[in-house]
Amino acid sequence: MSSARTVLITGGAQGLGAALSAAFHRAGYRVGVSDIDEAAAIACAEALDPAGETAVGFALDVRDQAAFEAARDRLVALWGSVDALVNNAVVTVARPVLEIDPDEFDRVVQVNLRGTFVGCQVFGRYFKERGVGRIVNMASLAGQNGGTATGAHYAASKGGIITLTKVFARDLGPFGVTVNAIAPGPLDSPAVRALVPQDKLAGIVAGIPVQRLGSLDYVADTAVHLAGENAFFANGATWDVNGGLFMR
């Protein structure tokens, strides 16, 4: 069996997810690209490796525990083991807090927070049994400051992810498993440009100390860094990548 490491990325077919998939593949990982959009996941994986030897795409609804277990088992059957999980699947809705329907609140939290919990739990058990593993959760600046261009459901879910990261990190740390979060500020991505009107986006950029939107590739490279074999002493942390918008 090859010594190459294997990663499962959720929401891995587009935007930040596609950048994550590409970054891990560049770093020599075998990449499981999962997404609610199966066709997009397969296309992303084929773009990384048309032969399908080092990248595979498939559908995954992160809310479903059995589906997460099946994804894990598929990668283990294909490549022998899984070394890292990146919980990136997300629903983003921008809506004033007094206009959010409770059902919409539930839908956003189900994907963002429940999905991260299920992934951490399914792979936490697997990694604990193996005695080693890396989990990287995608949080957000919105989970730290309440958000400015996103909805309260999105911000609350991301804040919850930061807390879940600490809980899993504490409980899994003694077993060789680390759990960390990355909290990006506004990124230069199609999702941000679609979400924020151009005139408002200019004001957001002006308020960032570095005067630029963030880089998808840099955030993805940070995830690769946290997933490394030698990253055993980074645990329970939230890595801020926000251009200086939030400092502590």
Q: Can you describe what's shown?
A:
The protein is an alpha/beta fold and 248 residues long. It has a single domain, classed as 3-Layer(aba) Sandwich (Rossmann fold), CATH 3.40.50.720. It has nine helices and seven strands. Strands 3-2-1-4-5-6-7 form a seven-stranded parallel sheet, sandwiched between helices. α1 links the parallel β1 (6-9) and β2. The longest helix is centred in the middle third of the chain and has 29 residues, at 102-130. The protein is globular and about 50 Å long. The mean pLDDT is 96. This is 3-oxoacyl-ACP reductase.
Question: Which key terms come to mind for this protein?
Answer:
single chain; 248 residues; alpha/beta; Rossmann fold; 48% helix
Round the Cα radius of gyration to an integer and report it: 17 Å
Assess the beta-strand content as a share of residues.
5-15%
Per DSSP, the total helix count is 9
User: What is the residue-averaged pLDDT?
Assistant: 96
